[in-house]
Amino acid sequence: MANFTAADVKKLRELTGAGMMDCKKALDESGGDVAKAVEILRVKGQKGVAKRESRTAENGAVVALIADDQASGVLVELKCETDFVAKGEKFQAVAQAIAEHVFATAPADLADLLTSEIEAGKSVKDYIDEANAGLGEKIVLDRYARFAGAYVGSYLHRTSPDLPPQVGVLVELAEENADVAKDVAQHIAAFAPKFLTREDVPADVVESERRIAEATAREEGKPEGALPRIVEGRVTGFYKENVLLDQPFAKENKKTVQKVLTEAGVTVKGFARFRVGA
């Protein structure tokens, strides 16, 4: 049995983010040498990267960064397999570093981001693969959002006090208004709209809703003459549920979000909402 202590195991876990049993095995193999054990875990981790590709990453963190003048901002979701890794400092440091990189470099799209250099001679994809190996879990970066040129606000929500933020919102306003930005971002976090305006809803989606509404009304035995009114009412209900400007405002549900914005003299240009794993 190699000569190492519980403190050595704890230190190795802090250095690598690996599981307790993996750390014990690595210390056994290294004869209790922590530095060698780190190398052993990294080598084994790199070999396991391909094996982890088929696993599901449903935990993780959302990170938001806003410029000091609030003229730009980014939102990044980084996913992992377990909440144990998600709440760890190493995973959160990786998520923060990627968000800072997106903020600094303004990549054109996800492919551009993954191939960009985050450290000397290391692409973001390599950086994530390294984290994958070190943490022993599948780490996934498959979406981010960036707004620039207007007034940007954000909101992050923790679904559990011991986890990093699991829901994040980035909202872009045409006019500067910190209170409205905060309220609208919180509303988006809670009500999860899919579209900004009715015009943003794809025509095929609207047509599908109309077909479903009509078929449902017929199944319910509604009078033929009432079908057009019923269908329009149900499509309007779809808009109220899915379109931000049509939704009842979270803090004052007798008003729509559009009415609140109009009263404040503010226009929403765009938004992004990420919920980890959703």
TrEMBL record:
Pfam families: EF_TS. It comes from the Bacteria. InterPro entries: EF-Ts_dimer_sf, Transl_elong_EFTs/EF1B, Transl_elong_EFTs/EF1B_dimer, Transl_elong_Ts_CS, UBA-like_sf. Its main location: cytoplasm. Gene3D superfamilies: 1.10.286.20, DNA helicase RuvA subunit, C-terminal domain, Elongation factor Ts, dimerisation domain. GO terms for cellular component: cytoplasm. It is found in: Cytoplasm. Residues 73-277 form the Translation elongation factor EFTs/EF1B dimerisation domain. GO terms for molecular function: translation elongation factor activity. PROSITE patterns: EF_TS_1, EF_TS_2. Keywords: Cytoplasm, Elongation factor, Protein biosynthesis. Residues 82-85 are annotated as: Involved in Mg(2+) ion dislocation from EF-Tu. Associates with the EF-Tu.GDP complex and induces the exchange of GDP to GTP. It remains bound to the aminoacyl-tRNA.EF-Tu.GTP complex up to the GTP hydrolysis stage on the ribosome. PANTHER family: ELONGATION FACTOR TS, ELONGATION FACTOR TS, MITOCHONDRIAL. Belongs to the EF-Ts family. This is Elongation factor Ts. The gene is tsf.
